[in-house]
């Protein structure tokens, strides 16, 4: 799972779980979590100068179609970092 959300010992799980718990009505049982870019990079996102261009060119449209096919447009999409915002 993205961010190792199925592993309570994961540092990603702990930080994201805290944020999920702050939003009324959200729980681990009623959220959908997905990466914008589904390939793996040799560099961390913040150090990868090509990440935003790759996200925009190859992945943002793919994710938009996926979300549109799964959810009503009234369902909010939450992002975890400014990099994602810049890549859509």
Keywords for this structure?
88 residues, mainly alpha, globular
Summarize the structure.
The protein is mainly alpha-helical and 88 residues long.
Low-confidence stretches: none
Radius of gyration: 14 Å
**Helical residue percent?**
40-55%
The number of helical elements comes to: 3
Overall average residue pLDDT = 87
Beta-strand segment tally: 0
Order of helices and strands: HHH
Strand content: under 5%
CA-CA gap between termini:
22 Å
Largest sheet: none
Quick one: overall form? globular
Structural class: mainly alpha
Topology:
Layout: H1 11-22, H2 51-70, H3 82-87
Overview of the structural elements:
This protein has helices at 11-22, 51-70, 82-87. By secondary structure, it is an all-alpha fold. The longest helix has 20 residues, at 51-70. The protein is globular.
């Amino acid at each position: 799972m993205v961010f190792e959300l199925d592993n309570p010992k994961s540092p990603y799980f702990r930080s994201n779980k805290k944020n999920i718990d702050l939003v009324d009505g959200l729980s681990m049982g009623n959220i959908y979590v997905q990466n914008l870019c589904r390939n793996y990079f040799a560099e961390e996102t913040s150090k990868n100068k090509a990440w935003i261009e790759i996200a925009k060119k190859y992945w943002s449209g793919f994710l938009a179609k996926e979300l549109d096919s799964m959810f009503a447009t009234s369902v909010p999409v939450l992002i975890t970092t400014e990099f994602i915002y810049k890549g859509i």
